[in-house]
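Whiteboard transcription, Tuesday session. T.W. wrote the structure tokens on the left side:
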């Protein structure tokens, strides 16, 4: 009887640990997915809330025309700086849709790493092709804080582009004109 009770208690502990890990995994996935979702909605406060308050490193070196994270020296940017950089181009589109999937999550204590596919569609009516699609993958690193899982590193790896590759420059011009 004692060994059956020990086995049940061990199984219960394993289930609790598995549920806690699943909960952390879901929180990590929510943080990385919320960046694109809220950027598409123009909810910049919620975008900023996904990043660590002490800042994060953005690495967009695979895409030289990005608004941030393309220099050889990648600084840590505060959430407000990340949002400000993205606001130089993303609001210039008529619509964006960031779709992430096939995500892999690894959690080690209070840190997590992820890899996910990205298919980001950008639409801007103009005299040329109205659509530009960024296809690639994201790599994220996150830290568990008192406010939940927060992104400390984000790398976008461009694998292919479809459509009008001039659309990001047109969107940036539109934002700049609106701010003048």
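and on the right, the sequence the group agreed on:
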């Amino acid at each position: 009887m004692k060994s059956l009770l020990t086995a049940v208690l061990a199984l219960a502990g394993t289930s609790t640990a598995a549920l806690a890990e699943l909960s952390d995994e879901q929180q990590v996935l929510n943080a990385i997915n919320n960046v694109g979702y809220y950027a598409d909605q123009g909810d910049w406060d919620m975008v900023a809330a996904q990043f660590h308050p002490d800042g994060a490193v953005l690495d967009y070196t695979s895409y030289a025309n990005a608004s941030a994270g393309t220099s050889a020296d990648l600084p840590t940017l505060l959430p407000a700086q990340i949002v400000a950089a993205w606001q130089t181009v993303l609001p210039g589109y008529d619509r964006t849709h960031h779709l992430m999937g096939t995500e892999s999550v690894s959690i080690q204590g209070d840190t997590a790493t992820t890899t996910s596919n990205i298919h980001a569609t950008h639409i801007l009516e103009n005299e040329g092709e109205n659509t530009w699609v960024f296809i690639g993958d994201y790599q994220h690193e996150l830290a568990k804080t008192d406010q939940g899982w927060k992104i400390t590193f984000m790398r976008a790896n461009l694998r292919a582009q479809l459509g009008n590759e001039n659309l990001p420059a047109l969107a940036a011009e539109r934002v700049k004109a609106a701010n003048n």
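Someone added at the bottom: Residues 2-41 form the longest helix (40 residues).
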